[in-house]
Design brief:
Low-confidence stretches: none
CATH superfamily of one domain: Ribosomal protein S6/Translation elongation factor EF1B
Largest sheet: 4 strands, antiparallel
Shape: globular
Radius of gyration: 17 Å
Structural class: alpha+beta
Strand content: 35-45%
């Protein structure tokens, strides 16, 4: 089986997180450990008001993760995340291997986000690499 890098975004119950931040984060880490996934980065993204109530909650804590696992384990990982009551919502996406290392480094705070390489495709189909920078 091929091993891929994935990004996971969780919306956590803000009340549970306020009462027990370490315990709530431990639930995220436990999910990956039980499924045999290697957690590469895990951090708070932000806490904000939700656009609409989810499970009667109006605020959520957004928790960002990057992890490595086999593609065959994703179905069970999704199922276990749905069963956990501390997770209001979750989303997993497969990361392009060309940018995975940079995204993990940014999430860990090891690299600034504006140095990400960008692939530019000309109308003729030729590609070139450029460094993106916020202007």
């Amino acid at each position: 089986m091929s091993v891929n890098v994935y990004e996971g975004l969780f919306i956590l119950d803000a009340n549970e997180y306020a009462r027990d931040p370490a315990g709530t984060v431990a639930e995220v880490e436990k999910l990956f450990a039980e499924q045999g996934a290697e957690l590469l980065a895990s951090r708070l993204w932000e806490e904000r008001r939700l656009a609409y109530p989810i499970k009667k909650q109006h605020k959520g804590v957004y928790w960002l993760t990057y992890f490595r696992t086999e593609g065959s384990r994703m179905a069970e990982l999704n199922r276990q995340a749905r069963l956990n009551e501390r997770f209001l919502r979750h989303m997993f996406i497969k990361i392009d291997p060309r940018i995975a290392d940079h995204l993990v480094a940014v999430a860990r705070g090891e690299a600034p986000p504006e140095e990400a390489p960008v692939e530019v495709v000309s109308p003729e189909g030729e590609t070139s690499q450029e460094a993106s920078a916020e202007e």
